[in-house]
Amino acid sequence: MKTVRLTMAQALVRFLAVQHAERDGAQHRFFEGCFGIFGHGNVTGVGQALADEPGLLTYYQARNEQGMVHAAAGFARMRNRLATLACTSSIGPGATNMVTGAAVATVNRLPVLLLPGDVFASRRPDPVLQQLETPARGDVSVNDALIPVSRYWDRIQRPEQLVTAALSAMRVLTDPAETGAVTLALPQDVQTEAFEYPEAFLEPRFWHIARPAPDASLLDRAAEMIRSAKRPLIIAGGGVIYSDATEALARLVKRTGIPVGETQAGKGSLRFDHPGALGAIGVTGTLAANRIAAKADLVIGIGTRYSDFTTASKTAFQGDRVRFVNVNIASFDAGKLGGLPLVGDARVAIEELDRRLHDWSADAEHRAECERLQKEWDREVSRLYELGHGPPPAQSEVIGAVNELSGPRDVVVCAAGSLPGDLHKLWRTRDPKGYHVEYGYSTMGYEIAGGLGVKMADPGREVYVMVGDGSYLMMAQEIVTSIQERMKLTVVLVDNQGFASIGGLSRGKGTAGFGTRYGYRADGALGDDASHSHGEALPVDLALNAEGLGAHVFRARSVEELRDALVAAKKVDRTVVIHIPTDRYEAVPGYESWWEVPVAEVSKSSEVEAARKEHERAAAKRRWHL
Ligand SMILES: Cc1ncc(C[n+]2csc(CCOP(=O)(O)OP(=O)(O)O)c2C)c(N)n1
Ligand SMILES: [Mg+2]
Fold this sequence. Notes:
It is a single chain. The protein is α/β, with parallel strands linked by helices and 626 residues long. It contains 24 helices and 23 strands. The longest helix has 22 residues, at 364-385. The chain is globular.
């Protein structure tokens, strides 16, 4: 057997450079590069290996380890999980900064490979700089914090362990049912130790991403259930897009007339104007989708996790005998809500159902109602796009301007605050990859960093990052990385002076927006909406901050100025930030849905007591779906 003497880090970099994913006959390099921030825990190991042969794996310098994992997750999502980026960090804080990013990847089922440095396997210099000492355990390091947020976790204590660990890591990363963050913790001394690695380990490898068909008898049964349904509804989740099943879905829907509601990750499964497209479903859903869901007798979930936002905390489906058919690559998800589990690939499952339903179409009355609701909803979107509120304008008008002035293949990126819900309802999607809202983990700070990953994955598209002032303040620094990499982003910074979404939630539950508005401390109550109505704004200038990070900045004060800036931004060749103040209290309403957030059972406040009563009334609508 031929071998080659390499350090563990050198072998790892060589291995990563030759991994591929293959689906539908197309082969994709699986790791297109490696983000990293160096410290003593990786600079002489993985850093040395990357520098040794820079042609193997492109190195990208990031500003924050959390940001680089977000970028890798955004990249992987944009590439439908067929490619990703690796992320190397030092030990200690560099490693723990990746925990939030790992959770984003794992919750959203996106492959990212984390390579945190780890303390010496030899333990001779203990405690090394940044080492956590645990008196009762010798084998614990801060990297153990990555275990619950990783789908595969390993610590490479000897150089030869890399062989089995790297193969296990690849198996999980390329399995759509299992994928998420994968962590290989790399003790800093082991990274630099040499071993005779078998050459076969370092040869190109192709990981086939299969399209398994669900069990044929269950497909027959599902087709029967659909045939006998009067009011069927499809819920399209992220799995539809990842499996590249959007065209198959469009064909099925056009022919059978089964309407479709979309989850956050599934938005874009159908064009917004496709017949039967009811738009967003659930807590942040449209009136059209939520009305149809409430009366559905059969729900066909495709590639969805059924999060509480999708099921309206289990109140969305009120039909007496509503049943579920769940198409999912993961049996874990296929079994939810007592559904008939069609475990398999979304595209194959849709085609198999379409074939079995070739002579069937949905009830004419059901179709007509869906068509009417779809038209009504489109008018509601236009109304909110053209509200004519302010100044300052309403957020819905900002969304309208960005939607109208972005191209059909451009991508909108968002993650937390009030924007995701409004985008879910209002964004008119025209391309399956045009809508990228991270709402599995809804991570403040994902927006700009994730947007960078989206742009790196498909530089031919303009990327519009819509970010609230709170999220911007949490993590804006990857603007610098976007400029360094010449990956232009157009960031629309929606400034409503604080955490407006949570302020609204708080007011709705009787607690007056406590702690959610920016302002000087007044009467001891920090940031309370009520106490700040006469308060003074903080002297914070986020546009100036963006300018300082190197962005080309526009300050818009009205929707007209925003439109002008969006047009002018197209001609700028580096990252643009358009700052636009909006009215924090002019929110898009909810449409016949409910989100379960607990309310105090006892309180001195009559508002809280009233909110608790309302909570109990609404909670009575929860269903078990067994
Ligand atoms: C990292 C993180 N911390 C806290 C939260 C809870 N949270 C959700 S939205 C929000 C406020 C976001 O403020 P901003 O970005 O200004 O958006 P707005 O609500 O004003 O639209 C907070 C604190 C979160 N989602 N992520
Ligand atoms: Mg805000």
